[in-house]
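Researcher: Structure for this, please.
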Amino acid sequence: MAEVEETGEETLTEEEKVARIREISGGSDRPIPGESLTNDPESPAPFEGPPQFSQKEDALEYLFVLLTEEDTYENLLGMLMDNVPIMQIVKIILYRGFSDGLWNPDMMLILAEPLAYMIMALAERADVDFKIDEDDEEAAIRAQEPKQLNQMDTALQKVNPTEETELPGNISQRIENVPVPPSLMAKP
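Model: Predicted structure, token format:
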């Protein structure tokens, strides 16, 4: 606990100082300004180091393998059948990859459009209807999301997945060979 020195001043531990600052700032769990500068440089967060993928083709190959894994593919189709917009799925996948140190923010934006096309092609292959983006009502709900996702969404709004874009040839051909899982509505 805090000790009172002979001069009448308290000596606080680091934990007590942080607790007092949080108390003064309204008790929120937000980071204290400059708190990230006190992180141990020997153990940086995954996104603070060099990204795992620096080439678009390598990252798209990783995403293709990820999306065509049996469980992932079925979950993806389930989300599309539940009317989750493709661009929402793209944002989640790319933000997660950034957080895990797979790519940097620039690569994340470069991957947005081809990833959207990849998901559309997989959905068409499975004969699943999809929607590309959300309507105004859904946008109002999304406005309550964390600030980082809103910033990423603003950047992704510049990406227009309805324009003509090609996936790398090998991925386009491989999508044609992806086995379609049985319908979730089919009788067992």
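Researcher: Any notable elements?
Model: The first strand starts at residue 3 and ends at 4. The chain has a mean pLDDT of 77.
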